[in-house]
Write a structure and sequence with these properties.
By secondary structure, the protein is α+β, with helices and mostly antiparallel strands. The chain has 7 helices and 11 strands. The radius of gyration is 20 Å and the shape is globular.
């Protein structure tokens, strides 16, 4: 989800902070500007699709609501972002309560993606769903294409997108940041993935087949992410 930041009108972060007096930790009265976290780094490389898609770097700075343009990084296109996401509140709360820790929120996602299709994790098998008209459909396994087809007929030819393509791309983009850690958290030499924040699911809710299998896919996703990032005890 994204929210509006600028503009002193109801519904923006600026209005909530400066007029309604909410979220005082986001505003620095001394400087008369948005606060900047001392220990939480905000990193956001975004791409649509797999590992060969364009990577846009929207954030690479200590957490703040101020609009910034990240410093260039090889293989990524730096762009400023004038909207906010849930990482802003999450990051500041982590920083304010864990002042001795160096923390990074690493966001790699894009909107309108389904867990049961675009973000399907490795190892996910085909599954079938029968609708209210007694029509049965087969849904793609990881790296299969297309997304679904009638179970009674032959499997159609693949399209230019496959199950798990966005998963492959998002985890790849995260590893680009983690593999070049000091470029995204100056001075950092090692890391531990302590937890995952999952903010997807609307796209699955618009397809009863995907919605019905959402829990099974989510369990598989949690297990796979913990293995992939070597963090068996990471919170989700």
């Amino acid at each position: 989800g994204e929210g509006k930041k600028d503009g002193n009108t109801n519904g923006t972060l600026q209005f909530a902070v400066q007029t309604e007096g909410k979220y005082p930790y986001l505003w620095d009265k001394t400087t008369g500007n948005w606060s900047v976290s001392k220990n939480v780094r905000n990193v956001f490389p975004q791409g649509s699709g797999g590992i060969t898609s364009l990577i846009q770097l929207f954030n690479n700075e200590f957490m703040t609501a101020a609009e910034t343009t990240p410093a260039p990084f090889p293989g990524m296109v730096s762009k400023n972002k004038d909207s906010i996401g849930p990482e802003l509140g999450i990051g500041f709360m982590l920083g304010l309560n864990m002042t001795d820790d160096k923390i990074m929120t690493l966001k790699t996602c894009t909107g309108n993606r389904a867990l049961g299709w675009d973000l399907l994790p490795p190892g996910s098998p085909e599954f079938k769903y029968t609708n209210s008209k007694n029509e049965s459909y087969t849904y793609a396994a990881y790296h299969e294409s297309p997304e679904m087809w009638p179970s009674s007929g032959p499997k159609p030819a693949p399209i230019d997108w496959y199950a798990g393509l966005q998963y492959d791309g998002d985890t790849y983009r995260a590893l680009q940041a983690l593999g070049n850690l000091s470029s995204f958290y100056p001075g950092a030499q090692c890391y531990e993935v302590a937890g995952f924040f999952w903010w997807q699911g609307d796209r699955d809710s618009r397809d009863m087949g995907l919605a019905t299998n959402y829990e099974a896919n989510l369990v598989r996703l949690i297990k796979q992410l913990r293995v992939q990032y070597g963090s068996p005890n990471a919170k989700f």
